[in-house]
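Reminder: ligand-aware prediction takes two inputs, not one.
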Amino acid sequence: MSAQAPPSVLYSKDEIARRIADIGGDVGRAYDGEEICLIGLMKGCLVFMADMMRAIPLDMNCHFLRAATAQEGSGSVRTDIVYSTDIPYEGRHIVLLDDIIDTGITLSFLLNHIQEQRPRSLKVCALIDKPSDRKIDVQPDWAAFTLREPHGFIVGYGLDYEERYRGLPYLGTIPRPARPVEGRKITLSSQG
Ligand code: IMP
Ligand code: MG
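Here is what comes back for the chain with magnesium ion:
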């Protein structure tokens, strides 16, 4: 493997820790001492989940989901749940942890799916919100960071590029990959 420059720092380990403490407190206050069901979207949420579990001052149970979004031959986009722990949605306060909300396609599918399971409430907490890339109008209830300016491809703190960089303690950027990342080449015709 050729030597490569390390990703440039977007948010340092300390900046991340401060924001996790802030939003952990915000989530705690929103539920007034009630138990929540924290669901992490694999695999990017891994490190975020571990930190949020310890920053939210509530009783909780923890679960994991994995969704895959791909473009089909017809040009339409399809999202499927490809892995799930045995999640007791019904009657629970669900908090979904997402690493990056980009087009919003994956999140929008998951919100519809979870609502059908009749939770008591459903909220979304994102590590990074990229509102300018949205193709479907969904918003997180909390976001540690909101990125409005153009930036490179984000890696580290659980996020990967082709499975690399997940273990970096900071959020960094690498130059945008020339070829699309698997499952990320998405164009929607018209979204009413
Ligand atoms: P979307 O909102 O359906 O477009 O899906 C967002 C997902 O795309 C995130 O959960 C990430 O897995 C992935 N993603 C989007 N942008 C980046 C990036 O800059 N770095 C790493 N993963 C990304
Ligand atoms: Mg992901």
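The first helix runs from residue 13 to 30. The longest strand covers residues 60-71. We will return to this case in the review session.
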